[in-house]
């Protein structure tokens, strides 16, 4: 019997990387998604199926890129830089970095709102909620500053804790499923309208599938570990998403499910009583914390990878004694803190600023997927002598599928979001020119 190799000291092994992928995908959204999909009934499973296929295509793109470029840290940025050069690499790194820390602000707010189940004063006091949110993001930053193994262990523990209530409710729901509750299309919407709508909702659930490729320098045997973790993590998330949707639609009538503010917790309460409601609420808090831990790990690595290629200022690549790119990590968390301060002290205007930045973050998260789908083919073209004609068949299929999936995601986010995303990328051009000047002066 063969045994999986032990992770080298300070390195992320297969299970830590898989936990990072699953943990970053399954954040706060999965706890609310069944309620959003209830109005579409079982027709939502068609949307899940299509988006799962698209996500698996992208997972295969990242897996193949990781096997071709195993030691390239920075994930999407590194692959796009390799495939399309400095300028495209800078734009993606710039947009992706902003998306990471703005998204972390959103996750922190979600985590504090779930904590309100246990500490109602957080719902009544903006000051208490803001202080808790800022404390939470700095706690996670401290964990990540202690090295990759520290954040990897947290990823495994939090992923297990978050999966237990989700899996428990899902399995029980499938066992006690009431077929009368499962309606194919309860509102009788045209399928041509219902299926794209469910796809638009389910697309966001797969953001984060590239997570294992970002800290490649901290991964044990990256040429094997990253591809396996990426595909395995995406399959685990897809299976849980689809099964939980079926289970919850079979536990509650569509109208009740659609009106639920905490569908998994309400389902647990109906199955096992009040204690289960709080247990699942605790799982939701841990889910947010685990996702925040994983995304926080990435917010330091992206600017550091760009700085090593002289596309970002050199201070981003400074590391602490644990080998963590500490300047990028701390600066990102400082920016998250400013966003949270706007959110919790600015009243309506603060909320509007916050939502505005999150919209920009969403748009800039999606662009790297489209670029990476084509970057794989660009890297293969650069090394065309290594490949036989038949070696191109599978990459062409899943790159094409992943590219169409990414384009659909961007289209589904709406014209206004795309416009602001483009403006945000253009705002990075002066930074690129400044860095270009610095490189010329130093040369």
From TrEMBL:
The subcellular location is:
Cell membrane
Which domain of life does the protein's organism represent?
Answer: Bacteria
Keyword Membrane present in the record's keywords: the answer is yes
Bilayer-crossing regions: 12-33, 45-66, 87-115, 127-143, 155-177, 197-217, 229-255, 275-298, 319-341, 353-380, 392-411, 417-434
Q: Which InterPro entries match?
A: AA/rel_permease1, APC_superfamily
Tell me yes or no: is Transmembrane among this UniProt entry's keywords. Answer: yes
Q: Name one Pfam family in it.
A: AA_permease_2
Q: Which residues form the signal peptide?
A: none
Q: What is its main location?
A: membrane
Gene3D superfamilies xrefs: Amino acid/polyamine transporter I
Which terms are listed as keywords in the entry?
A: Cell membrane, Membrane, Transmembrane, Transmembrane helix
Recorded topology in the membrane? Multi-pass membrane protein
What job does the chain carry out?
Answer: Major component of the acid-resistance (AR) system allowing enteric pathogens to survive the acidic environment in the stomach. Exchanges extracellular arginine for its intracellular decarboxylation product agmatine (Agm) thereby expelling intracellular protons. Probably undergoes several conformational states in order to translocate the substrate across the membrane; keeps the substrate accessible to only 1 side of the membrane at a time by opening and closing 3 membrane-internal gates.
The similarity annotation says: Belongs to the amino acid-polyamine-organocation (APC) superfamily. Basic amino acid/polyamine antiporter (APA) (TC 2.A.3.2) family.
Protein's UniProt name? Arginine/agmatine antiporter
Source organism:
Vogesella alkaliphila
């Amino acid at each position: 019997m063969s045994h999986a190799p032990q992770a080298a000291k300070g390195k992320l092994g297969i299970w830590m990387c898989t936990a990072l992928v699953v943990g970053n995908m399954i954040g706060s959204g999965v706890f609310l998604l069944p309620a959003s999909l209830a109005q579409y009934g079982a027709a939502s499973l068609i949307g899940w199926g299509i988006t799962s296929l698209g996500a698996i295509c992208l997972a295969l793109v990242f897996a193949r890129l990781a096997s071709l470029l195993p030691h390239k840290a920075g994930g999407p940025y590194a692959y796009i830089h390799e495939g399309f050069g400095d300028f495209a690499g800078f734009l993606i790194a710039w947009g992706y970095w902003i998306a990471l820390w703005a998204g972390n602000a959103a996750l922190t707010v979600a985590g504090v709102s779930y904590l309100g189940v246990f500490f109602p004063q957080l719902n009544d006091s903006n000051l208490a909620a803001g202080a808790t949110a800022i404390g939470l993001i700095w706690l996670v930053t401290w964990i990540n500053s202690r090295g990759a193994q520290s954040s990897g262990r947290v990823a495994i523990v939090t992923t297990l804790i978050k999966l237990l209530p989700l899996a428990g409710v899902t399995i029980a729901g499938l066992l006690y499923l009431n077929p009368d509750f499962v309606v194919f299309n309860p509102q009788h919407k045209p399928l041509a309208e219902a299926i794209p709508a469910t796809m638009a909702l389910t697309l966001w659930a797969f953001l984060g599938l590239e997570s294992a490729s970002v800290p490649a320098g901290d991964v044990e045997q990256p040429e094997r570990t990253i591809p396996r973790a990426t595909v395995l993590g995406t399959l685990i998330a897809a299976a849980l998403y689809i099964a939980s949707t079926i289970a919850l639609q079979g536990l509650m009538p569509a109208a009740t499910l659609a009106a639920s503010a905490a569908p998994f917790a309400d389902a647990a309460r109906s199955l096992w009583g009040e204690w289960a409601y709080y247990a699942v609420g605790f799982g939701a808090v841990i889910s947010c914390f685990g996702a925040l831990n994983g995304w926080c790990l990435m917010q330091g690595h992206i600017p550091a990878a760009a700085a090593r290629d002289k596309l970002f200022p050199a201070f981003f690549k400074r590391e602490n004694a644990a080998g963590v790119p500490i300047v990028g990590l701390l600066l990102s968390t400082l920016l998250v803190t400013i966003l949270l301060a706007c959110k919790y002290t600015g009243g309506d205007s603060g909320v509007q600023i916050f939502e505005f930045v999150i919209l920009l973050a969403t748009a800039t998260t999606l662009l790297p997927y489209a670029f990476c789908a084509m970057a794989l083919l660009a890297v293969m073209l650069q090394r065309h002598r290594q490949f036989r004609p038949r070696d191109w068949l599978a990459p062409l299929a899943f790159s094409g599928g992943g590219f169409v999936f990414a384009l659909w995601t961007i289209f589904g986010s709406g014209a206004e979001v795309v416009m602001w995303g483009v403006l945000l990328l253009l705002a990075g051009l002066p930074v690129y020119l400044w860095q270009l000047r610095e490189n010329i002066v130093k040369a």
